[in-house]
Amino acid sequence: xxxxxxxxxxxxxxxxxxxxxxTGFGRRIGRLLGGFTSSLATIASYPTGAAGxxxxxxxxxxxxxxxxxxxxxxxxxxTGESKQLLxxxxxxxxxxxxxxxxxxxxxxxxxxxxxxALLVGLTAAVGSAVLGTLIGLFSGYFGGRTDDILMRITxxxxxIPFLPFALVIxxxxxxxxxxxxxxxxxxxxxTTARVVRSQVLTLRQRPFIWAARAAGTSEIKILFVHIAPxxxxxxxxxxxxxxxAGVMLEAAxxxxxFGDPNLISWGRMLNLAFKAGAVRTAWWWVLPPGLSLSxxxxxxxxxxxxxxxxxxxxxxxx
Length: 318
What we know:
By secondary structure, this protein is mostly helical. The protein has helices at 2-7, 11-16, 24-44, 47-64, 66-69, 106-142, 144-158, 162-173, 177-203, 207-214, 219-255, 266-275, 283-311.
């Protein structure tokens, strides 16, 4: 009977098949995704973290659904029934958040602006976290001249003030979202590199690292297979902080008039309202982007605070 089941591909044949094994790269990706989902679960277990994640999820859904949710394109000019321009009109059924001095819908601009906030925040955060983590790993593990060179570069980067440097670069190259993101990445990686290096200096003296060396494991494999997974929680934490910093820095540059002129963002909305002299007279133009920016930044702070409490239990007593 068992022979028939095996020949027909039944349960015995299925049990006899060797299990599918993941490749080394697949296992590392699985660890990375597992660490990320575990971090999200840890954050969600705290009330403040869960609230922050809910707010961030709202903005993510809003940004992804902008083409369908926003009633107008960001630079569409609204007109009334008699084709007159709807300039600086307060909130109404036609324009829930009112209009700008150029008859553009504030509600639509806020929705489209959330896409720029998320794009800049996530791209800058991931770029700076990966760059800072790599520099911290190599600097802390190999030490010696490698550590000296990388840390001196980090010291120089710490000595460069972001805003004056960014304004000079953007004045030369012209406002561009890609350049803004690059500047933010060049500014944010420094702290991540320092913190990761400190962690690696401790980890490289652990017994499991000495055991890996004794087993003949290569230095690169030790670095990326044995040490790197132990600094992932720090990388995720500073990635979240990087989202917050990236959104604020882009808004600051856009408010100063150095945002991408072809795109609408919350900071650029505030800049246009300020230049039009509508800060006091058209509250509906200023309040929505200002509140959106504040709410998004506060939500990220709530998430990072919850994650810090999980990583450092002593913070729970504060």
